[in-house]
Amino acid sequence: MKDAAPQTIYLSDYTPPAFLVDSVHLTFRLDPEKTRVISKVDFRPNPQAKSRAFSLHGEGPALQWARIDGRDVTPEITETGLTCEVPDAPFTWEAEVEINPAANTALEGLYTSNGMYCTQCEAEGFRRITYYPDRPDVMAPFTVRIEGSDPVLLSNGNPLNSGPGWAEWHDPWPKPAYLFALVAGDLRAHEGSFTTRSGHEVALNVWVRPDDIGKCAFAMESLKKSMQWDEDKYGREYDLDVFNIVAVDDFNMGAMENKGLNIFNSSVVLASPETSTDATFERIEAIIAHEYFHNWTGNRITCRDWFQLCLKEGLTVFRDAQFTADMRSAPVKRIGDVIDLRARQFREDSGPLAHPVRPDSFVEINNFYTATVYEKGAEVIGMLKTLVGDEAYFRALDLYFDRHDGQACTIEDWLKVFEDATGRDLSQFKRWYSQAGTPRLSVEEEFADGTYTLTFEQHTPPTPGQPDKAPQVIPIAVGLLGPNGDEVQPTTVLEMTQARQSFTFDGLGARPVPSILRGFSAPVTVTRDSSTNERAFLLAHDTDPFNRWEAGRDLARETLMRMAQHGGAPDRGYLDALAAVLRDDTLDPAFRALALRQPGQDDIARALHEAGHTPDPEAIFHAADRFGAALAEHLKDTLHALYTAMDVPGPYRPDADDAGRRDLQNAALALKTRLDGGAAARTQFAAAGNMTQQLGALSSLMAQGLGDAENTAFAEQWHDDRLVMDRWFALQVAHARLEEAPKTAAQMTARSDFNLKNPNRFRAVFGALAGNAGGFHAASGAGYELLADWLIRLDPINPQTTARMCAAFQTWPRYDADRQARIKAALHRIQNAPSLSRDTAEMVARILGD
Ligand code: PHE
Ligand code: ZN
Description:
The chain is of the alpha+beta class. The protein contains 26 helices and 31 strands. Helix 3 runs antiparallel to helix 4 (330-349). The radius of gyration is 27 Å and the shape is globular. The two termini are 26 Å apart. Bound molecules: phenylalanine (PHE) and zinc ion. Phenylalanine is lined by residues 120, 122-123, 253-257, 290, 313, 369.
């Protein structure tokens, strides 16, 4: 199918649907190459609509016949759908189409993956299955009959009936088509059950291929915890008799919240101690929770249109973060999220792809499943909660569920609920949804006669299409510490609303040390001149764990920026303060591991660019290497002691405490390996009883150019396990130095187990290349060229993954003229590829600023 001429869609053009749907009946006659889909849809004119023109979306289904109220009709078919004359009254539409799931490599609509059938309909995949009003504000109950030879036939809702070769499902909850799902295959269920607080028993299943049945227990436990938590914390109960989760190997994203039938990338369901790291266990728990929480925030209350994506995603990310904070350590979760936000969202916000949390136009909605919509969207909700307080937040949420259950809503509806629940005017706050860019907050301070004054100035740099920004509401959580480290002012939230604004604190005996933006209370960049001593003081004394970590992070970042530009070494003040933190046994090991972790090289490049310099990726790479060497040397004794002290006794458990100890142990090992020639890492590799230790040892070795034997042994041991091999592929490229990285990536693509059609494998190689800042930006330009070559190859197969991976090029404006020219040449080459997809064309054009 050729894509239609790219059209820009605008939020301001929204019009209500001409017809609403009262019910949908679908019959699937499954066949790998010739699946038939018969639909029967009851339509009724929408009293709210301005037009009576009837049209259905459809891209690719071959229409066999269509009837209205039992009479044959001949609709007019276009590249994007069909139109037809219809009565000005309720009517029944029936149609039969043929589709080819086996040929569907885009993984949108109905496709096959390793012999099983599966669907992905968000955002606009349902139109590849049949003709239908594929827009989220058209909601209807679905009844589905599946006919096929597979033993397991699943769809949304509750099972109605089944027999040999068929099954029927009914989903009573009106839903948009993007939440439709169907799965058929030779699957096994790991079963469980959950009784809701009103006594309803829900059957739970995690469906996997027979070989994977031993790797489902953790996902099942995570699901039960999520169900319990949503009842306890938000008062939300599950609403069907069954909840099914299916693991699929070929999937463009992490997972999908289809009503009652969540479909997951197998990488975020399957877990065992031998094959999964602690980080993977944590990720699985969080994603199971995320998709489950969508049942209310996304499914029961959905989005009016795709511009409102953050309505469900920002809120659901915020909810899953609260869940993880409750299940594990809240400060550790917060620090991890901020690391991720800066690496992905700040990066997006500072380049050509910057867009508001609620964009106002798009060409391909799949290109807007971004860190801005998801993670900044969650930050905006966090700020709202900070501003109104916990009690009002939950009151507003109750009102939201009450008022909007069963509806397709907007950000206006969401904010109105908060205004009505609190009496606040949120019109200025709303700018967080419409203004792109990360605000910069500069701080001045003054102390006289016991009064301390903090003056903040906010400024948001221009972003594409938005040269000027108005001041935003910024909740700034601040605490003050006295000279001896005592807290003289506990955390208080300053509400900044103006471009420049001062806040005073009276009655202080001495000039305090401020702890600003505690808990990262707003997604902004703080710039403030302060001494190394003061940062070291906060690293030692701040009572806010986030800012304690942040003080060390600031020092590390500034040190790396200086070393990348002028050479030199980390200063003693920082090293001593860090050593003290590492030795402090009262601190959570996971926190200490975070303190030991260096800022990423891409973060340093961004910081240099924002400070007006041109980052040199090679210089940053060497600075990071010398920084690591200096840490290892200075912390030598501490590392040895830590490494032994962090041994975890007893059987493997993936909980936060044990995982934190292993994380700190691996962080210590990475540095130790710089000193001992790899002896400790080899021992750990040989004795490893779980993947966290095995991979930790291997990556410590590879980071120092060691471990060839271990690397080979690892690949031999795991060659049959796709998910572990994804890790192995990524590791090869992640640890290749500078110009070696594109060479290694090219070698990986030449292996017989490299598979262009599997997004996980493609991302393992090219995600690792893009994430290896020194290697991707290697001076020869080989990294850019290789990625462009493979994106050109992938685009006809899988436009969605191609377009997402183009984002690797988004940082071009930071770099020197030579690199800029090479990146642009790579982008132009992609742009000129024959029949480039709409997805990729939009991304490349936006990156180039066309
Ligand atoms: N809605 C899914 C989620 O939140 C993400 C997704 C988007 C998955 C589009 C597939 C396709 O997690
Ligand atoms: Zn989501």
